[in-house]
Write a structure and sequence with these properties.
Layout (H helix, E strand, L loop, with lengths): L3 E7 L3 H15 L2 E6 L4 E5 L9 E10 L2 E10 L7 H26 L15 E2 L2 E2 H13 L5 H12 L1
């Protein structure tokens, strides 16, 4: 069976992206075999399903000036399992989506992990999202009670500065 691979770019500090990735793995309850903070890499296994015996996978965060690229790859545990490819590709997508949600939650709590986009110098965007979108997210979190008045004011001030 062919190797499985996928990647996604995040406009955040690479260490933050790596933390979001490991939180996502824990949230999915996949078996983490090893993590290396220095190289920002993790090896893990996906569980068995009706279509797959699972896969041995690795993920790494590749830093760049604009943020971090998460690259996920691996192979099915049982090479003769021809149906594993589709299931494991879905698992990779689930992992990247979960990492994205984790990172968004982390950045909502502390926006200092955002890497300034080239548009931020012009005051148009922060971390790939328009400032208006970021403010809308902050208001939503504040209204839902997930941010206190002080946290909301601090995040808003940081965003507008």
């Amino acid at each position: 069976m062919a190797n499985l691979a996928n990647e996604r770019f995040f406009s955040a500090q690479p260490d933050w992206v790596f933390e979001a990735l490991t939180r996502a793995l824990r949230g999915l309850r996949w078996s983490i075999k090893s993590t290396d903070q220095y190289s920002r890499s993790v090896t893990f296994s996906t569980p068995m399903s009706g279509f797959s015996w699972g896969a041995s996978m690795s993920a790494s965060v590749i830093p760049s000036p604009e943020g971090g690229l998460v690259r996920v790859g691996g192979a099915a545990k049982l090479r003769t399992n021809v149906t594993a490819g589709g299931a494991e590709r879905k698992n990779i997508g689930r992992l990247l989506d979960a990492a994205s949600r984790e990172l968004q939650a982390m950045l909502a709590q502390d926006p200092s992990g955002v890497v300034p986009s080239s548009h931020q110098a012009e005051g148009q965007q922060v971390g790939g999202l328009a400032i208006a979108d970021q403010l809308t997210k902050l208001v939503t979190l504040h209204e839902a009670g997930k941010l206190s008045d002080a946290e909301f004011d601090a995040a808003k001030a940081k965003l507008l500065s």
